[in-house]
Structure formats: structure tokens, C-alpha cells
Design goal:
CATH class of chain B: Mainly Alpha
Strand content of chain B: under 5%
Number of strands of chain B: 0
Shape of chain A: elongated
Number of domains of chain B: 1
Oligomer: heterodimer
Number of helices of chain A: 31
Number of strands of chain A: 2
Structural class of chain B: mainly alpha
Strand content of chain A: under 5%
Radius of gyration of chain A: 35 Å
Order of helices and strands of chain B: HHHH
Structural class of chain A: mainly alpha
Strand order of the largest sheet of chain A: 1-2
Number of helices of chain B: 4
Radius of gyration of chain B: 19 Å
Largest sheet of chain A: 2 strands, antiparallel
Chain lengths: 723, 112
């Protein structure tokens, strides 16, 4: 029911837009996410004994039911979607001017997305999940292209749609493979049959295909290229879809399928390696950016990689089964879920501050910005909270997840499983280097934009502090960041533990108590790593600031974007050429195709079906009149063929028609004979009329191959007609 | 009789296809007419020839020929007439506008 609400409401939005023009449409939309959020909070605080499964038959004959299932993981995502959704709606009310923008469209798309995303996380049926999954892609496409008059918007929208739908399609194939193995479309029923899936030969393909879907959606390397281009969307959309919710759908998918695939070496290696590479590459690229939003986009990619990596690193827990050994891997999953919440909150907050900067100064280029601290003190405070949380500094909630991340990476390096002995050391090392870059770009974000010299001559507008409406949403998120640092246990107990319980069923009950998360736990290796990150990251920041030439762009050929563009261009040109080669615009060629096809299909069918049977037994006798008529018919047809003058050809055609009239008489079809007679006469008259205007038949010499080709084809068609 | 008719239909088809594939507009229209004639004959041959009486309900005949092919042909004749007439007018208009009746010339200058 909650899933349907946004869709139903979306239908009403155009009416609000039309009849109540004075009021910003956003105010009418706001109750929806707020209401859903309230419902979900009630569910979290007063949990039912067992999560209810609501099922509505959709295509009962195929066993496809529209079933919704609200476990811990789904509830967590639902809260994120509706909570951040509400804040984004508030933000957008002040961000998008009601006079200029097509607000009706914007809110319809936004509600559509919200509903689809809720559908993704709550549905239990894989096909319904797929349906909603593609729906989010389409909503994202529409929202990125919201300012469709811009070329870059259209480019980014197309790119995101192509990549995510490609992944979605692969995912559908994976789902169908799974359904084929388990003979059910329900995810929970699949989890029960885990051993069957493990033993089945299509385990590998199904896993890879589903991961492809998750990686394209969550912008994992090498599919991350769509996310920076998606930043052409309005900032509320970037904050909502492309950092807080939609890109988390891939993570959700990984988490949801961990109980099915987790515990296998392939799953562990693929998921954590992809996550680690993405983490590193995103952080590395983010440092290079000069556009604040692009920097945040790459940082989103890197943070998503981090969560993916944690999901992978936690999957060995399923290999060991519930028990004390698995506890450290359970911690990794816990860290992943924790960071997921954190990231949604601080990244949403940061995007909104960038939006404010953009709105107030007219640019997002850090080369033009600077010295905004004194002009926009509140925005500055919020940005500091958000980015320090991202960098993993205390006293912000990002600190916990960063610490837990290092713990998980250290644990993973000590894993004596799946060939980890040789490669294990790479995990903490790469993670640490990536964290250094993360720290560096956080510093760039804060210091380049807010500190330094103010350059008013470079800005399009006079910078001022934003009004309260724009500040409201990021301020709430920033407050949450602080709140989670001081009271992490409430968050863990109410939200994270149920979510982890649904990723690793049976582990929370069996495993030892997960210790309370505290800020200070002695001089552990994790703390040393954090200190190292701060030290080296600050050094790197100073280095980059003083030597800007250090970070030269690699050649264009190396970038994945280049190959993506090349692929699109080449295939476009290729198909254009292919089309041109057979769409010649000549009627003759087209007829040739048609007749060739006819000959091939009919001939193949005749030979293939053994239809050569010939039986003259049932034939009626031939009388002398009929013989003569047949001869006349043939003769007149040949006259039409060989006539050099059009009048003679026409006479031939007329004779043919009248002979056929005679045949109809013989064959007991008097009404046909009458009709044919009348029609034939009229045809002749019209022909004659037109002859008055049309030129003589040209005795044009056609080239021999042309004639030969036509003759062969005509002969073949005639032969088939005979048969 | 059926065998003879089949052979005739085949030859008529061959002539029709050859005419349709030619370059002259008028020949194409003639070809389509020829093809239509062939098709009509093919249908009536398929229904069986000279079996039973005329399909008009009267008492004396014991068996009638199958009226279904005749109904089909009736439709086909009329449609063929309409198409021929339409094509002729189209050819006339095309000739009036462009001054050519050759398919290769009709494609325009960029296809030469």
C-alpha cells in the first residue's frame, strides 16, 4: 500500500499545478514522503512479531505475485528513501523557482521514482523487483534530462539510461536463471534453497549477471562513468537519486542476494575486488575535479565502492555458518550498513550545500570560489560537518564507519580462505590509500570553496547567505550526523541490527553480542590508520595546492568515457551504413527482397515439409474448349510480356481478362464472371485514359545481368506458383 | 484440368514478376494486373474445378462447388481494380510532376 501511494499521488500533481498556481507544488507533494516516513518509523519502533508478507496476485498463471515483504533491510532503505525524500522536497521548494520550471513534471517524476524505489526494496518477487528497478532507471533518466534544453543534460541522461538498463537487463537474465533453478520467483523461497543453487551449474552465470545489474546501478568500476554526467540534473535530484537512494539500489541488491550467493569464493572476490577498485578509483579521480558537483559524484562512486567492498568482505560469514568465528565478518556487514546510512546522510547534506553555493554564487568551479566562510557562515558549518564526516574524523558519525571499515579490512587480510594468504595484505593497503585521497578531496572541498581569498569579480552573482528554507534540509542532516556520533547505539539497535539480520539470517541470534560502538577504544591499529590518513592527506592537500601541475590529466584515450563515446559513435555510423546499403530507395531492389524472401521461405517450407506430392487422380477432364482457352490465355500473357507498344500490351491484358471470364463461366462461378467482365472493361478504359497522358513505352536496353537476374527470379516464383 | 491450370498459373506468375521487376512504370502496373489474374486463377484452382453445380441455392443440383474461393476472388477482383486505378492515377501524377516514368530516374539525383 505504501508503494502505491506515490504513484497515485503523482496522478494528482498536475491538477495541483494547474489549479493552485499561487502555491509552490512542492508543498502538496511533501505529505507523501513524510507520511510514509512516519508509518515506517512506527514499524521500526513497534515491530510486529514477524515481518508481514502482503501478496496480491498479479499473473497467477505464471506464479508471479505482487508481494511486499518488510524486513529490517527493506525498512532501513524505506526510511532512507522517504526521510531524505521529504527533506529533498523541502529543499526543492526553495531551489526551483515556481515561475520558471516545469514543476508539475519534476514532482511527478520524483514521486514516480520514490514509489519505484520503495517497490524495489519491499518487493519479494524478483520480477516485480526488476520492474520497479527499471522504473527507477526511467525516472532517473527523466530527472537528469529535466533541463532538457541543455546538451549536457541530454547526454548524461542518455548515458545513464543506456548503462543502467543494460545492467538491468543482465540482472533480469540472472533472475530468470535463478528462478529456473529454484522454480520460484520469491526471494525468500530462493534463500531457503541455497544449497540447490550452489550445486547448480548455472550458479556462476546467474551470480555474474545479477552483479552486473548491481554494479551498473551503483556506478561501480568500470560502469561508474554515468554518474558524473548525471550531475547535470538539478541539485535536489543529485542529492536524492545520485547519492542517497537510487545508486544504493545496487548495494541493496548485493545485500539482498548475499544470503543466496554469499559464502562462495567467487562472490567474495568479485564483490570485494570491484568495491575496492571503485573505492580507489573514485577517490583518486575526485581529487582531480574542479567542479564541486563532479567532485562529489566521484566521491559518491568511491563511497559506494567502500560499501560494496564491505559487503563482500562480510560474506565469508556465511561460509562459516552462525557462530563465534563468523562474528568478525558480521562486523563487516554491520559496518557496511552503518556506512550506507552515514553516506546517505552526509552526502545528501553536501550536495545540498553545493546546491546553495551554486544558487547563491552562480558557479560550482572551485577555481572561482573562495572566501565564502564569512559570507555564508551557516552553509560553511554544514559543509564542514558533512565533509569531515566523509573524511572519517571525530566527532562525526563517519568516524565510526571509517573505523569499522578499517577493522573489517584488517580482518579480511587475516582471512585464511579463498587464496587470501597471498593477496590479503592488499585489502587494508588499498583501503588506506583510498582513505588518504578521500581525506584530501574533503579538504579541497572545504578549504578551496570557503577559505582563501574571496574573488567577487569572478562570480556571476553577489554571494550571500541562503534563506532558511534552503538551509533547513542540510541542517537537519548535519544535525543527524552529530547525533549519530553521540548516540550510535540507538541507531544500531533499531535499524542496523535488523538489517544485518536480514542480510545474514540467523547470525545475530547465534553470534556473540556485537559490542557497543564507542568513540574511544584505545590505541588500536584502526586509530593509527586514521591518524596516518589525516597526516598524509593533509600533506597531499598542501602538495596539490602548491603544485597544481602535478595532477595532469592522462591522455584522452585512456579514459573509459572516450571508449564509451567511441562505441556509441561507431555503432551509430555502422548501423547507418548498414541501413544505407540495403535501403537503396529503389523499388526494384525492394521488390527483389520481397520475391527473394518469398522464394526462400516457400521453397524451404516445401522442401522441408516434403510437400512435393503430386496426384493427378482427382483432376477433372480437359475439354477442347478449355484447351483452346488456356492456349489463348498463355498467348495473350506472352503478348503482354513482349509487346513493344503499350497498346498491344494493353490488348494482351484485356484478352487475358476476358479469357479468365470464360474460365469463371466454365468453373461454375457466374457472379465472378459478371464482376470480372465489368471490372475488366473499366480497367481498360482507365488504362486508355491514362495512355493519353503517359509517354510511349521506351524500348530501353537493359543490361544483361539485370535482365538475367529478373528472369531467374521470375522463373523461380513461377515454378513455386505451379507447385 | 487442375494440372494444366497450375502450369498456366505458374507461367502467368513468372510473366507478372518479370514485368513488376522492370524499370518502366507502366510495365509495373501491367505486371501487377497480370499477377492478380494469376492469383485469382490459383485460388479457384485450389478450390477444385467443375465439381458440382453452380453455388446458387436451387433444388435440382445435388452438390455445389465450394463457394468460399469464389467469395475470396470476388473481393480480390474489386481490390485489384481499385489498386490498378490508383496506380495509374499515381503514375499519371508522377509523370506530370517529374516528367519521368522510369524507376531509376524517379529516385532523384542523389542516387545516380
Amino acid at each position: 500500500m505504501l508503494i502505491i501511494t506515490p504513484f497515485l499521488y503523482a496522478i494528482l500533481v498536475p491538477f495541483f499545478r494547474k489549479y493552485l498556481e499561487k502555491v509552490h507544488t512542492g508543498w502538496f507533494v511533501l505529505p507523501v514522503p513524510v507520511g510514509i516516513f512516519a508509518c515506517l518509523v512506527k514499524r521500526v519502533l513497534f515491530p510486529y512479531p514477524a515481518p508481514p508478507l502482503q501478496s496480491v496476485p498479479w499473473i497467477p498463471s505464471l506464479g508471479i505475485h505482487f508481494s511486499a515483504y518488510g524486513d529490517g533491510l527493506a525498512l532501513l532503505f524505506g526510511l532512507l528513501i522517504s526521510g531524505i525524500g521529504a527533506l529533498v522536497v523541502v529543499y526543492s521548494i526553495f531551489y526551483l523557482a515556481k515561475e520558471r520550471e516545469a514543476l508539475g513534471n519534476f514532482y511527478v517524476y520524483l514521486l514516480m521514482f520514490m514509489g519505484a524505489m520503495l517497490g524495489v526494496v519491499f518487493s519479494d518477487n524478483v520480477l516485480v523487483l526488476y520492474l520497479f528497478w527499471e522504473w527507477t532507471s526511467i525516472a532517473s533518466f527523466l530527472l537528469i534530462a529535466f533541463w532538457y534544453e541543455r546538451r549536457a543534460s541530454r547526454y548524461g541522461a542518455q548515458k545513464s539510461l543506456l548503462i543502467t538498463v543494460l545492467g538491468g537487463f543482465a540482472m533480469l537474465a540472472g533472475f530468470l536463471l535463478l528462478a529456473n533453478i529454484t522454480d520460484t520467483f520469491s526471494i525468500r523461497a530462493m534463500i531457503v534453497q541455497r544449497d540447490t543453487i550452489f550445486a547448480h551449474p548455472s550458479f556462476g552465470p546467474a551470480m555474474v549477471l545479477i552483479l552486473l545489474g548491481a554494479c551498473t546501478k551503483s556506478a561501480q568500476f568500470p560502469f561508474h562513468i554515468w554518474l558524473p554526467d548525471a550531475m547535470e540534473a538539478p541539485t535536489p535530484v543529485s542529492a536524492y537519486l545520485h547519492s542517497a537512494t537510487m545508486v544504493k539500489a545496487g548495494i541493496y541488491l548485493i545485500a539482498r542476494f548475499t544470503p543466496i550467493f554469499g559464502g562462495s569464493p567467487a562472490w567474495f572476490w568479485v564483490v570485494s575486488a570491484v568495491g575496492l577498485v571503485t573505492l580507489f578509483w573514485g577517490a583518486w579521480s575526485a581529487v582531480r575535479q574542479v567542479d564541486l558537483k563532479a567532485m562529489l559524484a566521484f566521491s559518491t562512486i568511491s563511497q559506494l565502492g567502500l560499501i560494496t567492498c564491505l559487503m563482500g568482505a562480510g560474506s565469508p560469514a556465511l561460509y562459516y555458518g552462525p557462530g563465534p568465528t563468523a562474528a568478525i565478518y558480521t562486523t563487516a556487514i554491520l559496518a557496511g550498513v552503518f556506512h550506507l546510512i552515514n553516506h546517505s546522510i552526509f552526502k545528501g547534506c553536501l550536495f545540498m550545500t553545493v546546491g546553495i553555493i551554486d544558487y547563491r554564487t552562480g558557479t560550482r568551479d572551485i577555481r572561482k570560489l573562495g572566501g565564502l566562510m564569512s559570507l555564508m557562515p551557516i552553509t560553511f558549518t554544514i559543509a564542514v560537518i558533512g565533509s569531515f564526516s566523509m573524511a572519517g574524523l571525530p566527532p562525526f558519525s563517519g568516524f565510526f564507519s571509517k573505523e569499522l571499515f578499517f577493522t573489517a579490512m584488517l580482518n579480511a587480510s587475516e582471512l585464511n580462505l579463498f587464496n587470501m594468504e597471498t593477496w590479503g595484505l592488499l585489502f587494508p593497503v588499498v583501503a588506506w590509500i583510498a582513505s588518504v585521497f578521500t581525506f584530501t578531496y574533503c579538504m579541497i572541498f572545504v578549504f578551496k570553496a570557503f577559505l582563501g581569498k574571496h574573488k567577487p569579480q569572478k562570480l556571476e552573482k553577489k554571494a550571500r547567505e541562503a534563506y532558511w528554507g534552503l538551509l533547513f534540509s542540510p541542517a537537519i542532516l548535519a544535525a543527524l550526523v552529530m547525533l549519530f556520533f553521540f548516540f550510535p547505539d540507538q541507531l544500531v539497535n533499531y535499524l542496523i541490527i535488523p538489517a544485518v539480520a536480514s542480510i545474514l539470517p540467523g547470525f545475530i541470534e547465534a553470534g556473540p553480542e556485537i559490542g557497543p560502538i564507542v568513540a574511544w577504544h584505545g590505541w588500536t591499529p584502526e586509530l593509527m590508520m586514521t591518524l596516518g590518513v589525516v597526516a598524509v592527506g593533509s600533506g597531499l592537500f598542501l602538495l596539490i595546492r602548491n603544485r597544481p601541475g602535478l595532477y595532469r590529466r592522462p591522455p584522452e584515450v585512456w579514459s573509459l568515457n572516450y571508449h564509451y563515446d567511441q562505441l556509441l559513435e561507431r555503432s551509430e555510423a555502422g548501423f547507418y551504413r548498414l541501413n544505407r546499403s540495403y535501403m537503396t530507395g529503389s523499388l526494384h531492389d525492394y521488390l527483389l527482397y520481397i520475391f527473394l524472401f518469398l522464394v526462400l521461405v516457400l521453397g524451404a517450407a516445401t522442401i522441408g515439409l516434403d510437400a512435393w506430392a503430386f496426384d493427378a487422380a482427382g483432376n477433372s477432364p480437359i475439354t477442347i474448349y478449355e484447351g483452346i482457352l488456356a492456349l489463348v490465355l498463355l498467348g495473350s500473357a506472352l503478348v503482354v510480356l513482349f509487346a513493344r507498344q503499350r497498346l498491344i500490351a494493353l490488348i494482351g491484358l484485356g484478352v487475358m481478362g476476358y479469357v479468365i471470364v470464360m474460365f469463371f463461366v466454365i468453373f461454375r462461378a457466374p457472379d465472378l464472371a459478371l464482376t470480372q467482365m465489368v471490372v475488366e472493361t473499366f480497367t481498360l478504359v482507365i488504362f486508355l485514359l491514362c495512355f493519353y497522358f503517359l509517354p510511349e513505352l521506351k524500348t530501353r536496353v537493359e543490361s544483361p545481368p539485370f535482365r538475367f537476374r529478373n528472369e531467374v527470379l521470375a522463373g523461380a516464383v513461377g515454378l513455386l506458383g505451379t507447385i | 484440368m487442375e494440372t494444366l491450370m497450375s502450369v498456366i498459373v505458374g507461367i502467368i506468375f513468372a510473366i507478372g514478376v518479370y514485368l513488376v521487376l522492370s524499370n518502366s512504370l507502366l510495365r509495373i502496373i501491367l505486371g501487377i494486373s497480370v499477377l492478380a489474374h494469376g492469383a485469382n486463377l490459383l485460388i479457384i484452382t485450389m478450390g477444385g474445378l467443375k465439381k458440382g453445380g453452380v453455388p446458387i441455392l436451387r433444388e435440382e443440383a445435388a452438390a455445389y462447388t465450394d463457394p468460399l474461393p469464389q467469395a475470396l476472388i470476388l473481393t480480390a477482383i474489386v481490390i485489384n481494380f481499385a489498386i490498378t486505378a490508383f496506380l495509374l492515377v499515381l503514375a499519371y501524377r508522377a509523370y506530370q510532376t517529374t516528367g519521368v516514368d522510369d524507376m531509376d530516374d524517379l529516385r532523384g539525383p542523389d542516387h545516380v
